Amino acid sequence: MIRTVDAAKVSDTVAKLCVEANFKAPKDVVDALARALRAERSPLGKDILRTLRENIRIAAADKVAMCQDTGMAVVFLEVGQDLHVAGGALAKAVNAGVRKGYAEGYLRKSVVDPLTRANTGDNTPAIIHTEIVPGRLLRITVAPKGFGSENMSAIRMFNPTVSRDQVEEFVVGCVRDAGARPCPPTVVGVGIGGTFEHAALLAKKALLVPLGEKQARADLAAVERSLLAKINALGIGPGGLGGATTALAVRALAHPTHIAGLPVAVNICCHALRHASAVL
Amino acid sequence: MKAKKLTTPLTQGKALSLKAGDRVLLSGTVYTARDQAHKRMTETLIEGRDLTFIPPGATIYYAGPAPARPGRPIGSCGPTTSARMDAFAPALMAAGVRGMIGKGERGGNVVDAIKTFKGVYFAAAGGAGALLARRVKSARVVAYEDLGPEAVRELVVDDLPLIVAIDAHGNNLFERKKR
């Protein structure tokens, strides 16, 4: 049986998620900041962590976005193969939702033409990643991405004989070079394997894995632990003003790759790790 | 350590009294400007014209605020990455800008300019746009309205919480903390 979902419902849901993601920090992030504040010893670092926690509270109270960079809207769609979207094109419906959400939420319109730099005026188009999955449901995740952190991302095509240490040094080097620019404490997403573009997508998807969720692969969990220890030994700290909390977490995803190579992508996200999901 | 109260415009004397690591509560007038505004302002200076909308001793806030809800002066209003303005900052300081507010490290050229022109670079908490917005009392566009969120806005601020990151003596908080 094919199930039908109205395109207008998709738009309304996307609009709501754009606002929610920008106003409300996910609970795992709030918990991680609390843990970081308990562990941090640097006085200026503690100051910044306290300010960020207070900012989350004020954003919710004042109905103001946590950050003025309300991002480019990255939208993940998991479309059940037994689902039919009626009343308009799916991508159009998503962009209509972004337009509505960014207007109604008083969110900043940050999207421009890449050559003329002319602002599109409504924060569209969104970056849409669509996956066809079994079932009859539509899962929508909106992850607004600010460019303070997005600018610090990188990808490298390694030789297949590269050592784990060299791969880790690449990731740690990205965070070192980024310094205070991506608004530390950050969450570092790492994509290992696949192809050039797939590694980048894995790195972005890694940022959506809940911070508390157990990594399924033991070897990948070891890479995450090792990277987090090395990154937090850099001393960059909250706001780049020194301290032990440069990253709240490292999340990695892996995918089989080719015998000739090893793509590794790093996508850095600020502490707010904004995202919100709904299932239709 | 208690925060120092500071008011704009910044004079040479006020700048010289600040030390990297000081906590500051800044009140008065600051001007938002980011990438495209910096490009235009620098072009104006290269053409030999003055920046009429930015008075001497001004403080520039590297920020592109979110729109205001009705009845509020401004939306979320935190700092953007300062390093992107490094190429433009020394020319603006030569033209009279004394203070800069942003987030993150600055290049050596900016550290030198801060020493030469007796300026100051403040770090605001990156990502704390909602908290910082509460300290903005009014906002009006004074240049480049066509740039939308990147327009130059005159903000009246009250106790904007900042940390002196690079002082007029050349002390650099980011340099010291780097390993």
Report on the structure:
The complex is a heterodimer of chains A (280) and B (179). With 280 residues, chain A is an alpha/beta fold. Chain A has 2 domains: 3-23 and 66-145, no CATH class; 148-273, no CATH class. Helix content of chain A is 39%, strand content 24%. Chain A is built from 8 helices and 10 strands. In chain A, strands 4-2-5-10 form a 4-stranded mixed β-sheet. A 4-stranded mixed β-sheet of chain A has the order 6-9-7-8. Chain A has a two-stranded parallel sheet with strand order 1-3. Chain B is α/β, with parallel strands linked by helices. Chain B has one domain (8-177): Alpha-Beta Barrel (fumarase). Chain B contains 6 helices and 7 strands. A 5-stranded mixed barrel of chain B has the order 2-3-4-5-7. The longest helix of chain B has 12 residues, at 35-46. The radius of gyration of chain B is 15 Å and the shape is globular. Classes of the chains: A alpha/beta (280), B alpha/beta (179). The A-B interface holds A 44, 47-48, 51-52, 54-56, 58-59, 62-70, 106-110, 117, 119, 121, 148, 151, 179-181, 183, 234-237, 239-242, 270-272 and B 21, 23, 36, 63-69, 72, 75-78, 80-81, 83, 103-105, 123, 125-131, 133-134, 147-149, 161, 163, 165, 173-174, 176-179.
